[in-house]
Design goal:
With about 190 residues, this protein is α/β, with parallel strands linked by helices. It has one domain. It has 7 helices and 7 strands, in the order αβαββααββαααββ. It has a 4-stranded mixed beta sheet. It has a 3-stranded mixed beta sheet with strand order 1-3-2. A hairpin with a 2-residue loop joins strand 2 and strand 3. The N and C termini lie far apart (about 75 Å).
Length: about 190
C-alpha cells in the first residue's frame, strides 16, 4: 500500500511540470473574474425615507446601496401597510420593466404609471386588462407608500396636495433613472421617449 502512494507521488512529480495552464502557472488553471462593482450614492425619494439594503445582480455588475434615515428597519416592519405596499412593488418590478420595454407604460409627472396605447394591447382586450391590473396595483402601492412615508415624517393626515407634491418629486427621480426609450411625462404633461 505504501509503495503505491510513493509510486503515485513519483508520477505526479513527473507529470506536474507537464500540466501547465495557458497562463504558465502551475497551481491552477481556473481563472476567477469577480464582477465589476459599482457603488452609487443615488437614492430615490422613497429610499431616502426608508432604511434598507438593496442588492441586485445586473449584467455582471453588483449594484449595492444602503439608505440611512430616521426610520429604522424595525419601524418599516411594524408598519404592515407600508411593508405590504413595498412588497407589492417588489413583486411587480419585473413585469413593469417588460411593459416599459414594450413601450406600453410610462411614468407620469405625478409619480404614477400610465398605459400608453400600443397595437399589441389595443388588439387584445385580455392582455390590456392584465396590463391595467398590474398598473393599478403598482399605482395603489405607490400612493400608499407616499402616504405612509409622509405620516412617518410628521404629517398626521397628509392632504392630496401633500401626496401629489411627494409624487411629483418621486416622478422627477423616475425620469432621471428611466432607461433609454422609456416613456416619460414632463411637468407640462408632454410625453416623450428618453
Amino acid at each position: 500500500m505504501r509503495l503505491q502512494y510513493i509510486e503515485l507521488l513519483c508520477v505526479l512529480g513527473l507529470a506536474l511540470p507537464l500540466l501547465r495552464c495557458a497562463s504558465g502557472t502551475i497551481p491552477s488553471c481556473i481563472e476567477i473574474a469577480p464582477p465589476e462593482i459599482n457603488l452609487t450614492s443615488q437614492k430615490t425619494v422613497v429610499e431616502r425615507h426608508i432604511v434598507g439594503d438593496y442588492k441586485e445582480l445586473e449584467r455582471d455588475a453588483w449594484i449595492v446601496s444602503s439608505v440611512q434615515t430616521n426610520m429604522s428597519r424595525r419601524t418599516v416592519s411594524r408598519d404592515r401597510v407600508l411593508f405590504e405596499a413595498m412588497s407589492t412593488r417588489d413583486s411587480l418590478r419585473q413585469k413593469i420593466r417588460e411593459f416599459k420595454d414594450e413601450g406600453a407604460v410610462g411614468e407620469t409627472s405625478k409619480g404614477y404609471l400610465k398605459y400608453i396605447g400600443t397595437p399589441k394591447y389595443q388588439r387584445d382586450a385580455a392582455l390590456r386588462s392584465s396590463l391595467m391590473g398590474v398598473v393599478d396595483q403598482e399605482n395603489q402601492a405607490r400612493k400608499t407608500i407616499f402616504q405612509r412615508v409622509l405620516v412617518r415624517s410628521g404629517k398626521k393626515v397628509p392632504s392630496e396636495r401633500d401626496i401629489d407634491e411627494f409624487g411629483s418629486r418621486f416622478a422627477g427621480e423616475q425620469r432621471a433613472f428611466a432607461k433609454e426609450n422609456d416613456w416619460i411625462q414632463d411637468t407640462s404633461g408632454r410625453w416623450d421617449r428618453k
